[in-house]
Amino acid sequence: MKKPIRVAVTGAAGQIGYALLFRIASGAMFGADQPVILQLLEVPVEKALKALEGVAMELDDCAFPLLHGIVQTSKPEEAFGDANWSLLVGAKPRGPGMERADLLKDNGKIFIEQGRVIDRVAASDARVAVVGNPANTNAMIAASQAKRLPADRFTAMVRLDQNRATTQLAKKANVLVSNVSDVFIFGNHSPTMFSAFHLAKINGKPVPQVIGHLEWLKSEMQETVGKRGAAIIAARGMSSAASAANALVDHVRDLMTPGMIHSVAVKSHGDYGFDPDVWAGLPVKTTAPGAYEVIKNLPIDDFAREKIAITNKELVDERNTVKDMLK
Ligand code: NAD
Ligand code: LMR
Q1: Does 171 share its domain with 225?
Q2: What pLDDT sits at residue 101?
Q3: Number of domains comprising the chain
Q4: What is the mean pLDDT of the chain?
Q5: Which stretches within 122-263 are classed as H helix?
Q6: Which of 42, 55, 146, 299 is deepest in the core (most CB within 10 A)?
Q7: How far is the centre of ligand 2, averaged over its atoms, from the C-alpha of 165 (Å)?
Q8: Ligand nearest to the Cα of 241, by number
Q9: Which residues are catalytic?
């Protein structure tokens, strides 16, 4: 039997938490032979802690063989103590008519404290995935607090955009999603993100060659993927939850699986024209469990360069907005 992985999840009694915890406990994130201990953090408010108690009861009632323990707490030190992975979901979601960046002032400060505590008490191999919006910049805030953990351990999720783009391409080409590969998301988890259709493949062939419709690829597809979160809020009255939880399962599973090629928001070192030190969605290859390298030198044409410049500018603007929160 393998040693359990300690997984801290913040906002565990929220919408995404409810769609996520059961998947982790079932083995979907770390594998069918990997036990886990869930360390669940909620705000110190009676209603939230009571709801968390209910979620923990339901986890118990599933009798998951891989679930070796549940910690329920409102103390970050307890939640992040010895954690191998910290999944930072807990934050305000946006409502109708808002952009994710509107959440920055409220949500940003959560990540100051959490980044600091993770750096102090988490396991030496600690890794962090940020979901709370605006995810890229929140990851930057958390990472800026760390003295012990290197910045590349802090990632943010653009996997939902990758999955959304994959399905849009599959539908347009009338193929299965499993026929679509190399879908990379560049930049911010926001409407400015660039879904790099020119690199994507269907059955190994370039998407522009298979789909044609360059105008659709450049405009409608970008807009559908970039504004999908808002479309879901308009339809459901609440932000995406099950698909976000599923994307987080994919994000972490692929970061733990050597050889996987996927999109992750990571600290930029200037590749593809992103400012150094913003957290940008980039194509990565997992090199060892939890370790990755940015895939370099993929061809970038004029259209892609223009789109990357726009999303980079938004990331730089967000960084300027929170400069007082950065260490
Ligand atoms: P929710 O309101 O249903 O749940 C959030 C939970 O977090 C609540 O239970 C709240 O009590 C808790 N929380 C708030 N501050 C906390 C803190 N400091 N520590 C611990 N817990 C805290 O929201 P949700 O729908 O689960 O969404 C959570 C976040 O994820 C939002 O910011 C949302 O915008 C974001 N999101 C991101 C993506 C993405 O692709 N990156 C996708 C969907 C949602
Ligand atoms: C999403 O993309 O669905 C989430 O980021 C939620 C949102 O605010 O759009």
Answers
A1: yes
A2: 85
A3: 2
A4: 97
A5: 135-144, 159-173, 207-211, 214-215, 221-226, 228-236, 242-255
A6: 42
A7: 14
A8: 1
A9: 189
Mean pLDDT across the stretch 182-209?
Answer: 98
Q: Which domain holds residue 24?
A: 5-156
Under DSSP, the state recorded for 43 is -
What's 107's domain CATH number?
A: 3.40.50.720
pLDDT (mean) for 233-256: 98
Residue 118 CB contacts under 8 Å (≥ 6 apart), including other chains: 8, 80, 83, 86, 126, 128, 142, 146, 149
Which residue from 92, 98, 100, 137 has its CB within 8 A of the most atoms of ligand 2, so it is best to mutate?
Answer: 100
Query: Residue 95 in contact with residue 234, Cβ under 8 Å?
Result: no
Nearest residue CA, atom 33 of ligand 1?
Answer: 93
The residue contributing the CA closest to ligand 2 atom 4 is 229
Closest CA relative to residue 189, chosen from 145, 231, 221, 156: 156
Please tell me the predicted confidence (pLDDT) of residue 13: 98
Find the farthest-apart pair of alpha carbons in the chain and give their distance in angstroms, rounded: 56
Which one of 113, 138, 156 terminates a domain?
Answer: 156
Say whether pTM exceeds 0.70: yes
pLDDT the model gives residue 279? 98
Return the best residue to mutate from 239, 243, 248 for the ligand 2 pocket (most ligand atoms within 8 A of CB): 239
pLDDT at res. 95 = 87
